[in-house]
Amino acid sequence: QELWAYSWTAPSEEGTYTLLLRATDYVGNEEITNAVTMIVDDTAPNVGTTMTTGEYIGTRPGAVTRVAIRLTGTAVDDEVETLPGSGVGLVEVALMDENEWRPALLFADGTWLIDFDLPDADEDGNVIANHSGDYQFMVRAIDQVGNQTPSNVSFS
């Protein structure tokens, strides 16, 4: 038994491709042809929310002013032809204009959840005593092969 390798350059067009593999020994005996299906996935997942208002969680234990908002939604990686995409690998959430992405919990059914801690101080370092108001969040999903889709979603 010998090791072998083959380098295949994936086509630039998304879709399914079948590679046929067959080995031949030194005296010309050929094995039965094996087929391997490859999926080229260039499409970013879709991310959404299941609500328009975040659920107020309250002050975190041990914190004076820290409050969290529970945000939820769904993320799916669309099919490539009739086969599933590579799958959603990560959902992240950030406050608009802060660009500090935080990972959400991602469940097998495609739903995601995060208890998002709001900042406890403003840009000047002043403690925020009252967290009431509107907050805008960005949500993005990244699939297993790195395709990413940013999505602006507003929560109040």
Helix content: under 10%
Average predicted local confidence, pLDDT: 79
Q: What is the H-and-E element order?
A: EEEEEEEEEEE
Which stretches are low in confidence, meaning pLDDT under 50 for 5 or more residues running?
A: none
Q: Indicate the proportion of strand residues.
A: 35-45%
Number of separate helices: 0
Q: What is the 3D form?
A: elongated
What class do helices, strands and sheet pairing give? mainly beta
Structure description:
This protein has 156 residues and is mostly beta strands. Helices cover 0% and strands 44% of the residues. It has no helices and 11 strands. It has strands at residues 15-21, 34-40, 46-49, 55-59, 67-76, 88-95, 102-103, 105-106, 111-117, 135-143, 148-155. The strands form 3 sheets. Strands 3, 4, 5, 8 and 9 form a 5-stranded antiparallel beta sheet that branches. The protein has a 4-stranded antiparallel beta sheet with strand order 7-6-10-11, with no helix packed on it. Strand 10 and strand 11 form a beta hairpin. The model has no long low-confidence stretch (mean pLDDT 79).
Give the helix/strand layout.
Elements: E1 15-21, E2 34-40, E3 46-49, E4 55-59, E5 67-76, E6 88-95, E7 102-103, E8 105-106, E9 111-117, E10 135-143, E11 148-155
Antiparallel strand pairs: 1-2, 3-5, 4-5, 5-9, 6-7, 6-10, 8-9, 10-11
Question: What's a concise summary of this model?
Answer:
The protein is 0% helix and 44% strand. The chain has 156 residues and is mostly beta strands.
